[in-house]
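Board notes (copied after class):
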Amino acid sequence: MSDKDFPASIATPAQTIDEVINQLTAIVEWSKENNSRMGYFAALYRKVTIQVKNGIEQGNFDDGPRMERLDVIFANRYIHACYQYQSAQTPTQSWVRAFDTTERWWPIVLQHLLMGMNAHINLDLGIAAAETVPPEELQNLKDDFEKINQVLASLVGSVQDELAEIWPILGILNRYLGSVEKAIINFSMEKARDAAWSFAEELSPLTAELRGKAIAEKDVMFAAFSNVILHPGFTLSAVLKIVRLGERGTVRERIGILE
């Protein structure tokens, strides 16, 4: 972990979705310059954020300003975690596990993305929803919460072509085995999103102290779940090693593909 050349601009929380995109861009560019696998998740996340921005501008959400507030609070948790990790501070354990993994050679690109999703969707999304509106308004947020989750689902769905470009054999396998997002280590986006909403409902009425305790407990749970993503059993782990040996391109080139 080093803050060498890491963009200091992300130390200040974003206030608008445009600032979020700028900060994500800074992380992506830093990752490419430093051949850091942190850029895999950041590149995809920036694409999703741009989709959310476009949806707000097109009036696709019930309450555009509220949706931007949710998006900014949500994104700031990831951006701040990046800054903490690179400046020798300690983010949540779920993010520590994800960022530690970026320094390892063996996990495939998809595993890096799943580690990011585990921390950001399983943990951060529910927290962000609870912080966006007061408890009495939380249920009014649910429709837009579902809509933003449709965009988040595209984070998985859009990966198929990019991963096939990184590992060409995957394109052939997809013709016979179906979409890659249907079989990625039994990671259920639908269940993750439902759990995030339940977590928001749990957190919303709590005091700051009790929220902190509930978040810490969930963090331990999802940090432990990262072991399943990295070590999904002997057979699948062996397959993943074969995939890793077949992945082509440098870290910088793979980030470019994911962009």
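Comment from the instructor: The chain has one domain: 8-258. The CA atoms of residues 37 and 103 lie 7 Å apart.
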